From TrEMBL:
One of its GO terms (molecular function) is phosphorelay sensor kinase activity. PANTHER family: HYBRID SIGNAL TRANSDUCTION HISTIDINE KINASE C, TWO-COMPONENT HISTIDINE KINASE. The keyword Zinc does not apply. It comes from the Bacteria. It comes from Ulvibacter litoralis. Its EC number is 2.7.13.3. The chain crosses the membrane at residues 203-223. Keywords: Kinase, Membrane, Phosphoprotein, Transferase, Transmembrane, Transmembrane helix. SMART domains: HATPase_c, HisKA. Gene3D superfamilies: 1.10.287.130, Histidine kinase-like ATPase, C-terminal domain. This is histidine kinase. It catalyses: ATP + protein L-histidine = ADP + protein N-phospho-L-histidine. Pfam families: HATPase_c, HisKA.
Length: 461
């Protein structure tokens, strides 16, 4: 059963992790698809603005300027580096106007988002009519310069466009027009500032549903595992109870069997003394059997089924009389000390049931090695309660068992063995009696340091 439970729990956890992984993967794919769709929409919005006649005219301003610088370069008036430097200065000079036009055009975009623009040129070369190539920027060497927009980090943006300005031109050298082919490669990047916020907003419904579903599945798994352990514990307790009650019943039944055989034997026909003693044995074992049955029946009552006959009495006098009677048959090795305050405040309770609860605690203390017992009584006006404490120097109770000891049929065990006889009903019955009085019972203990049971009964209103 234990192995099956572990396998079941392990399989359930693995299944939960697998489902969580699949769910996370599907959500991530949905996020990526929406992100790609958003980039496509953003690209369309940027394209609308970038292709307007005003911006297109601005683009040709720097292009014509660049062609003029090519003429100067081929006339040996400026260097190749000066051409690039001049391009940078020209685009920088008109970039302010470009940003004004771009921001104005993007202010009413359908995405309702701020989209940064960045245009770079990565390759510039010219090839003359003889096939000679002259590189100003080499894409293979990852040369690039900033043209327009905002020069943010490249890693923050998404490339949405690759364009190549290819056109045949001419430059004049010594009065002769020489044709050449120009290759001017540019790349456009965009950066949506609140992209994650927008994606989160669009996916919020899915995320909330996924989280709620995950919490529900985890809660269901936790409840199932808890219920499994609870059922297993109850099954173990019932099995333990059956074994204990069987063991307890065997002794009187065996004695009764022997006594019956004795009575039916021919050798007791003329021995009246033996016959009388045998009958007494039968009577005692009958009484013992009846007590065992009564203990099971009475101890199975919940606190709501206990019918109290409450009366007012002096608890100090009641406890002194109860302990005095209890001490009479005790072995001299057991010593009970009393610290009972004479408060004068009357208690309202059922004497019989309250006495039964206290005697159960005293019997329990002696049963588990207590030889020095102390019973104390006082009234706590702050808590509005009568306080009865029963302390012993027995073997004590481990902290891990303390929350279970008031459960029905529960018995503290070590390595699946019980070292003390009993049905596991005494403390349960005691707790039900105290609950029936609207009181509480708690325990403070540790291994080899005894235990202290504290009973609190509310003051009469």
């Amino acid at each position: 059963m234990q192995l099956k439970s572990k396998v079941l729990i392990f399989a359930s956890v693995i299944t939960l992790l697998a489902l969580t992984g699949i769910q996370s993967y599907l959500i991530y794919n949905t996020y990526e698809l929406k992100k790609k769709a958003f980039v496509v929409d953003a690209k369309a919005e940027v394209g609308k603005v970038y292709r307007t006649p005003t911006i297109d005219s601005l683009m040709w301003t720097y292009r014509y300027h660049f062609l003029d610088k090519i003429q100067e370069y081929k006339s040996n008036k400026i260097s190749k580096e000066a051409v690039i430097d001049s391009l940078k200065k020209k685009t920088s000079a008109i970039n302010g106007r470009f940003l004004e036009l771009y921001n104005e055009g993007m202010s009413g975009n359908s995405l309702q988002s701020e989209i940064k623009f960045r245009q770079m040129v990565s390759h510039i070369s010219m090839v003359d009519n003889l096939g000679k190539k002259d590189n100003f920027l080499n894409e293979a060497k990852k040369d690039s310069i900033f043209l327009f927009g905002e020069d943010y980090r490249a890693t923050d943006g998404v490339r949405i466009n690759n364009a190549t300005w290819t056109q045949e031109h001419e430059y004049v050298l010594d009065g002769v027009s020489i044709p050449y082919f120009l290759e001017f490669k540019t790349h456009i990047f965009i950066d949506v500032l609140d992209e994650n916020k927008i994606m989160l907003k669009e996916l919020s419904g899915i995320l909330i549903a996924a989280v709620l579903l995950f919490i529900f599945v985890v809660s269901l798994l936790y409840y199932s595992i808890q219920n499994l352990f609870k059922q297993k514990r109850l099954a173990d307790i019932k099995t333990d109870f059956i074994n204990n009650i069987t063991h307890e019943l065997k002794t009187p039944l065996s004695t009764l069997s022997l006594a019956t055989e004795t009575l039916t034997g021919s050798f007791v026909e003329n021995d009246t003394i033996l016959a009388k003693e045998t009958v007494q044995i039968i009577n005692r074992q009958n009484v013992r059997l009846q007590k065992l049955i009564d203990q099971v029946v009475e101890s199975s009552l919940g606190y709501r089924e206990i019918q109290l006959s409450n009366e007012e009495f002096n608890c100090s006098i009641f406890l002194n009389e109860l302990i005095n009677d209890y001490e009479l048959p005790l072995n001299s090795s057991v010593v009970i000390s009393k610290k009972i305050d004479n408060t004068g405040i009357l208690m309202v309770a059922d004497k019989f049931f309250l006495g039964t609860a206290i005697i159960n605690l005293l019997n329990n203390a002696i049963k588990y090695g207590g030889t020095e017992l102390e019973i104390s009584y006082t009234v706590d006006t702050k808590k509005d309660a009568h306080i009865i404490n029963i302390k012993d120097n027995g073997i004590g109770i481990s902290e891990k068992y303390q929350k279970h000891i008031f459960h029905k049929f529960y018995r503290v065990s070590e390595k699946d063995t019980h070292n003390y006889k009993g049905l596991g009903l005494g403390l349960y019955y005691t707790s039900q009696i105290i609950k029936a009085h609207n009181g509480t019972i708690t325990v403070h203990s540790s291994i080899n340091n005894g235990a202290t049971f504290s009973i609190q009964i509310p003051l009469a209103q």
